[in-house]
């Protein structure tokens, strides 16, 4: 349990059975009245934000949140199998939890997964992943100066704009934070 | 905190504000006094934690009780500008050590102090901005025009749909005040919220003819609570009973033994405090408003929280 004086920006708390994070926090105290803690709270499952004011006597649930470092093994239909490198335990995550991240997985890629009551709700990939281009229009030789892009599909099915000089079979680096092309690996 | 590369103008404007405040009180024949920072018996308030400073002493949260003892001694107009302390209060508008202006006037009531506060804020604005209008956080404040004067009952009925003077609910009162009532105030005109429910009288007398409410008002400007005024309670028996209630509630909330009662102050009430009114105004917050500072730390020479 947290008390109101533990509250701060960035703290994860549990509200009505859902893991939430405090995104804004302010101490207020009306004259001769009690101390109040005004918080803006984001539900980590739904992404929805609400304002909530706590009194100093209020108790706030601590969410049972656990972060685990796993590595990607293989996919079985809509299920993605990861392994805990310390215990060799297998962990299966659904496509709904992974979102587009599922298209950027490569074998043995390390990922960090956040669980709430053993239910995974957030997966973060390394900032950059390397993928081979499987489909794109033939490259325009010498055109490395312009910002013109063309569509490409990489292994795993992720589709993104790439520069004109990229060819099928090229290995490229993708920034997983914005999903954009970051460079060609020579 | 980043190191400023040039002296902060807020500190000069702060000094200018203090000069304007003192000039007002000097012109009105007030005596400036310096009362103790340390006390063996802080005024008990349910929701206020005094800061202990060793040797059985606390640092004051207000000089109020000392001022009333001076009034009982025969002084008629007093003011003080000085540091006050509250444990654990830190936020954009709170700092554990802050500067309070308090003034007391024999023969006046809370309405008289409202008129005087209007003069004082106009004088401060004139001294700093050369005008009664200036901009605070994007809003054009105007202390020279009409002020909004609202009773707590009507403000709550309009913004929160209930009347705390008819049936008081302390939790609902604080939450609705912060979440509904205060946000309904004008962004440009000063707002005075007056006639608080009797359970929130603090050291104010109850209104003659309507004991459900106390003669107390709070001033808001630019969304900031700036000052708190009373027609002072002078009845020693009622005062003792209120202190007992407040210190019992405080002890329950903190788990600490009840604070000692200020028997010197209560004895002064027994010998006779003349009818009077008093007010506390947050000087740091006034300087925030006058210098367009979003947070209190901007107007303090040093803000180095523990």
Commentary on this structure:
The complex is a heterodimer of chains A (186) and B (306). Chain A has one helix at 95-98; strands spanning 2-3, 12-15, 18-28, 36-43, 49-55, 59-60, 65-76, 79-83, 90-94, 110-116, 119-124, 128-136, 149-154, 159-163, 171-175, 180-185. By secondary structure, chain A is an all-beta fold. Chain A folds into three domains: 2-60, SH3 type barrels, CATH 2.30.30.30; 65-124, Nucleic acid-binding proteins (OB fold (Dihydrolipoamide Acetyltransferase, E2P), Beta Barrel); 128-185, OB fold (Dihydrolipoamide Acetyltransferase, E2P) (Beta Barrel), CATH 2.40.50.140. Chain A has a five-stranded antiparallel beta sheet. Chain A has a five-stranded antiparallel beta sheet with strand order 14-13-12-15-16, with no helix packed on it. In chain A, a hairpin with a 6-residue loop joins β8 (79-83) and β9 (90-94). Chain A is elongated, with a radius of gyration of 22 Å. The N and C termini of chain A lie far apart (53 Å). Helices cover 35% and strands 25% of the residues of chain B. Chain B has helices at 9-27, 64-73, 110-129, 152-160, 170-181, 236-254, 263-272, 283-291, and strands at 31-32, 38-39, 51-52, 58-59, 77-85, 97-106, 133-136, 139-142, 148-151, 191-197, 206-207, 210-221, 224-231, 276-282. In chain B, a hairpin with a 2-residue loop joins β12 (210-221) and β13. The mean pLDDT of chain B is 95. At the A-B interface, β3 and β5 of A face α5 of B.
Give the SSE map:
The complex is a heterodimer of chains A (186) and B (306).
Chain A: E1 2-3, E2 12-15, E3 18-28, E4 36-43, E5 49-55, E6 59-60, E7 65-76, E8 79-83, E9 90-94, H1 95-98, E10 110-116, E11 119-124, E12 128-136, E13 149-154, E14 159-163, E15 171-175, E16 180-185
Antiparallel strand pairs in A: 1-6, 2-3, 3-4, 4-5, 7-8, 7-10, 8-9, 10-11, 12-13, 12-15, 13-14, 15-16
Chain B: H1 9-27, E1 31-32, E2 38-39, E3 51-52, E4 58-59, H2 64-73, E5 77-85, E6 97-106, H3 110-129, E7 133-136, E8 139-142, E9 148-151, H4 152-160, H5 170-181, E10 191-197, E11 206-207, E12 210-221, E13 224-231, H6 236-254, H7 263-272, E14 276-282, H8 283-291
Parallel strand pairs in B: 1-5, 9-10
Antiparallel strand pairs in B: 2-4, 3-4, 5-6, 6-14, 7-8, 10-12, 11-12, 12-13, 13-14
Helix pairs in contact in B: 1-3, 1-8, 2-7, 4-5
